[in-house]
Design goal:
With 149 residues, the chain is mainly alpha-helical. It has one domain: Arc Repressor Mutant, subunit A. The protein is built from 6 helices and 2 strands, in the order H-H-H-H-E-E-H-H. Strands 1-2 form a two-stranded antiparallel sheet. Helix 1 crosses helix 5. The protein is globular and about 55 Å long.
Length: 149
């Protein structure tokens, strides 16, 4: 095995992702949001200013509606999310961010920008842009085999 093949590609992808998740989790804990765990990001990530239906969120997160419903229920119970009537279908509900949920979403976003800036400083801006371009290409062409990922 040559040195290029010594670290499995999964580790090359997963280790930086875990490091970024840990930075976000640490920032949230330090800011008083210790009850937010990395799994909750799968729900918070897919809500914009209009809100979202649970089915849309589950599909975007590649997970079952039941699993997404469990995450949303926890976040509603802890005042990060709420439900509003769907303006397009009065029978349906949309999940919306509360002010507390917006603070978490903004802090996570800002922390990720800091992570990217740190990585860019570490490996160089050109290399970081090349990495982003390649990862975007991979992201667009790879779909999870499991719905609960």
């Amino acid at each position: 095995m040559n040195s290029r093949d010594s670290i499995p590609i999964g580790s090359l992808l997963l280790t930086p992702a875990i490091a970024a998740i840990d930075r976000v989790n640490d920032a949230l804990t330090e800011s008083g949001f210790a009850d937010i765990r990395p799994a909750h990001a799968r729900a918070l990530r897919y809500i914009d200013d209009r809100g979202a239906r649970i089915t849309e969120m589950a599909e975007a997160a590649h997970m079952t509606k039941q699993s997404m419903s469990n995450l949303v229920a926890y976040l509603v119970a802890n005042d990060y999310l709420d439900f509003e009537p769907d303006p397009e279908d009065q029978r349906a509900k949309r999940v919306v961010l509360t002010s507390k949920g917006k603070k978490v979403q903004e802090l996570a976003s800002q922390t990720m920008k800091t992570v990217e800036a740190d990585w860019s400083q570490s490996i160089g801006e050109d290399q970081m842009q090349a990495l982003r371009t390649l990862l975007e290409l991979l992201f667009a062409n790879v779909k999870p085999a499991r719905e609960d990922l």
